[in-house]
Amino acid sequence: MTVISWQPRLIVAGLLLALTYLWIQSASPELERRNRLQSTLRIIELRDAELMRDILLARAGLLANYDALTKAGQELLRLSQSLQTDLQPANADAEKLMGKLADQLTATVQDGLVQIEYLKSDNALLRNSVMSFDEIGKTLRTAARPGDTAKLGNLWRLMFSFMDSPRPELAAEIRQELDRLAGLPLPDDYRVLIAHGRLIIDVSPKVDTLLRQIIAQPIVSRVDDLQQALRQYSDSVEQQAEAYRLSLYLVALVLLAYLLYQFVLLRASTLALRRAHANLQQETGERLQAESWLRESEARLRAITDSAHEAIISTDLQGKIVSWNQGAQLMFGFTANRMLGQPFQQLLANPSPDFFEQIRDEGAINRLNGPTLDSIALSQDRSAFPVELSLSSWTRGTERYLTAIIRDISARKHLEEVARQQELQLIQANKMTALGTLVSGVAHEINNPNQLILFNSGLLADIWSDALEILEDRYQASGEFSLGGLPYTEMRSSAAVLIRDVKDGAKRIERIVAELKNYARPPGAEAQVSFAINEVVDRAVRLLKHLIDQKTLHFKTELSEALPLLRGDPQQVEQVLVNLLINALEALPEPQKSVSVATKLLHDGRQVCVEVRDEGIGIAAEHIEQLCDPFFTTKQAKGGTGLGLAISASLLRAQGGRLSFSSEPGQGTCARVIFPLNPIPATEVNHAM
Amino acid sequence: MKTGFVNHASTQANMTQKRNPRLFLAECIGLALSVAVQAQTPEPLASLPLKVDLNAPRVVLGQRLFHDPQLSDQGQRSCASCHPLDSGGMDGKVRAESADGVSLLRNTPSLFNVSFNYFFNWDGVVTTLEAHTEKVMLNPNIMNAKWPELIERLRAVPDYVDAFSRIYPDGLTKANVVDALSNFERSLVTPNARFDRFLRGDTAALDAEEQQGYRLFNALGCVACHQGVNLGGNLFQKFGIFGTPKGEQDPVDEGRYNVTGNDRDRGVFRVPSLRNVAVTAPYFHDGRAANLEAAVDTMAEHQLGKRLATKQRDAIVKFLNTLTGEYAGRALAVNKKTNP
Which of A531, A461, A552 minimizes the C-alpha distance to A501? Predict the structure, then answer.
């Protein structure tokens, strides 16, 4: 409905134009002019009447002067001429007729005026002559002789009759009389009389003729004709105006009907509009609802986007950033305000210059849409971190955009590292397990010949001591002799040492094998019992009483009272403690240094700790981690097997406890055995063997 | 009384005109006669009004134009050249001097009281003062003006342009030039002649002989033609009813015949006004009468068919001398200097 409908406007405008035209036409046309013409005609009539009156008065000798008459005549002509000019621009037939009539009227008036002028002249002469005739006649009659009187009397009578009714025969008679008089020898007065008499009979009929002609001038009928024509013209134009008025009425009706029709249309449109409006309102409401939902959904989406740990960054195809989520801010440290519009490449540690050129290619994006790619990103402090980049493209309108979801994978990398370490450890442990199995097998194989060696060495020693008396005897007897390639005197002192060395070596093998067996002994056979840790400590100390006295002058125990009972194998715990005590005592460089054993509760009573502290040489930091590894020993020379702490740790693990060390080289070491108070039952996995 | 008659007559006319024009005329005659009998017969002569009501600025402008030689072709003549207002409103010459010095013109009539004439020029060729004014201005023998050039000349004078635009809405135009001149000419009235005072009831204004002259003027029939306010100027008459007047010059002036072409108008001229006649010699259309005595004698003999006794004539001349009025507060007189 945005297109303006011109048709009704044109129709209404057309009708209004028609109405205006008809209104103008229906107004009685030239009413003023017609009235003016009408009144002019009336005035002409009036002036004509005045003129006629004056002429008659003049003729009767009752008009003193011709001013008024002349004026009336000229006025009449002027009026008639003005009528003529008024009707000059004739276009209609009726007007042409009127113009013609006005021309005729003017011509008539002009004719009349000419005649009137003549009448005025003649009338003046006539009056003058009549007066003179009368005067002279009177003078002559009074002064005349009787004979002359008779002659004059006849003339007088004739003239009087002629003045009364100017008949031609009277005129002829008077002329005869005047001719007769003119023939007589008479004084000057008679000549004047005769001249005036002749003038009277000459002019008098002319004056009467002129008067008749003037009266006969059809001025009135011309005016009448003009009035008639004017009336006809008025009637015709009024009829025309009437027709226009009727048309005006009809057009007005049409306009009204059309307006009504338009009104009905408008009404219908209004109703439709109102309905549409209601619909629209409803739709608007729905749309608003939808919009609010949309907004909510968008907010949710934004919240989701923002809450995502991943950086979600959108760029246009020029690489300008158009969206930047909370995750990105957290990841890169830049705020959205700072980054919007910035090139995306600056976030990458090794951006390829034609990165986006490639991406603009449709295929490249399709390729990119699938897999992710790893890259190195730069955060605000220019520190690089590994990221995983997932690119996707989308289109809004004609613009194409790229969205990168960037995940900081440094934690994962770290975990992967840890897992690899653990894997390596597992492999190591597996190797250890295999080694343990191997060792227990080997131990057995070794132990049997070793027992033979041990047994035989004792026997050999007995044999040697018994043989020595004999040999001594022989030496005494026979002097020096060779024994096993060596001289007897040398052999006598060293053979016992050799045998004892054999025995010691065998014993050492026996011990290593025994410990190997302990290390690899499968758990689970021992009964889990409750025991008091202090008692175990006492027993271990008592067991090592001899060694303690030998190694240190300062040994002390600080056993906390009221420690809860522990569950486990007290024998193994005792073995662990003995192990630790031996290590501590052996670490002492001199007896002045002290060793102390303490039991206490740790961590609000949830753990029980046995602490063995010495002031020995300490452990190098790099060795602390390896203390519990099997076969790690710093006392190889002193017969250390490297299995003691490994076995200890293994035993403790089996009981839910653990072993920890802290040491400062040169100052001493503190070893702790920590038991949880509710030890978790040991699992198979936790046991190395 | 008269107004009533007019109304009555007009209603009568309206009522009767439809029926029969003849009957209507008969009624008119009856009415007119009855009214005329009842009415006091008006005097054939009437006094000039003491004052005329005119548009003063136009009169002043007209006066300026009247005296401006720029109105003529050569810039030599103004209206006042032939109608000097200090000398009876005419040049006092037998015949007017034509511009080319060859053409034969008629005697210059006085411009005083011209507005009370009904016909202008000796032959009555025009009937309005405006037409007369323009005619004289454009006459090649008199002022020989041509409108476009004349208007051009007047436009060159800023005063005229100002004055015209002040007085006339459409400023300086041909019609307005004529109008201003005509207005001025209408102001040329000479009231307060002794005869006028006599007519207004001052019987002492005329002495016995002058009054005798007035009576003779009536009785002899002069008044038959010299009537009205201007004692003439409102009709035509043949010059020489009783015999041909003496001193006719060649060629014969046909007079009004030149205007109408009617045979009976041969030798017919306008009856001139006798106002200020004593200061407007010489007389007649051709100036043949050098003085009033000669003029009165000629008129009596050839127009009235009578020879006057010297006494009669002198009385009439004396009467005619009482017709001299005042212009601008002074009685008109012949200016000897301008009249050689």
Answer: A461
